[in-house]
Amino acid sequence: MTTAMTWMSGKLRVIQGDITTLEMDAIVNAANHSLMGGGGVDGAIHRAAGAELKTACQALRREQWPDGLPDGEVALTPGFNLPARHVIHTVGPVYAKTIDKSELLANCYRKSLALAEQQGLHTIAFPAISTGVYGYPFDQACDIVIRVMAEKLPHSALTVTLCFFSQKDMEAFRHVASRLGYQRDR
Ligand code: AR6
């Protein structure tokens, strides 16, 4: 894992690594509507958390989301065998060139932060939601994330970690932040 880069007076950390290894109050899962697991980061989280996570997700479907978790919504489970205490499951939008889904992606981040605050949590880590199988262009997704963090973090006690899978993604984030006028902390 590389050294963290930080922005926004240390409230926003960016690292490269595997989100399933992070000791956080919560990690966010880029799930799908079914909440039954899948590939990418969702598959990795389910594997690392163990079978109890799927059982907890089945209960969420039965009790709260019988038609599945909609795009931009969030749901909470324990982290089970993960080093993270909780998992916040959210569903990012599938990218479409002709439809602007930026608000749905922003909602994944906003609602995850709100849920973490409501639970009294202090640390939360996000993967780059929708930028894998769901095809969201990485730079556009970073733009959305940075705007949400700039809007929310000044009024929040949370420290947010963005956990990117590759060094290339980390560099891309740094470029977008700089283009938007956000300088790294010194
Ligand atoms: N840690 C951190 N980031 C990761 C990890 C990991 N262990 N594994 C992958 N990534 P994706 P989506 C990065 O496809 O686009 C699933 O099947 C990856 O490089 O996991 O929201 C679900 O069930 C990429 O940057 O999520 C849904 O059906 C980012 O995580 C669908 O994929 C997101 O990639 C959701 O697609």
Explain this structure to me?
The protein has 186 residues and is of the alpha/beta class. It has a single domain, classed as Leucine Aminopeptidase, subunit E, domain 1. The protein has helices spanning 40-49, 51-63, 102-118, 138-152, 167-179, and strands at 5-7, 12-16, 26-30, 74-78, 86-90, 123-126, 159-164. The longest helix is centred in the middle third of the chain and has 17 residues, at 102-118. The protein binds ligand AR6. Ligand AR6 binds at residues 18-20, 30-32, 38-42, 44, 92, 127-134, 163, 165. InterPro entries: Macro_dom, Macro_dom-like.
Q: What is the CATH H-level superfamily?
A: Leucine Aminopeptidase, subunit E, domain 1
Assign an overall shape.
Answer: globular
Task: Give the C-level CATH assignment.
Answer: Alpha Beta
pLDDT < 50 runs, ≥5 residues: none
The main sheet orders its strands as: 1-2-7-6-3-5-4
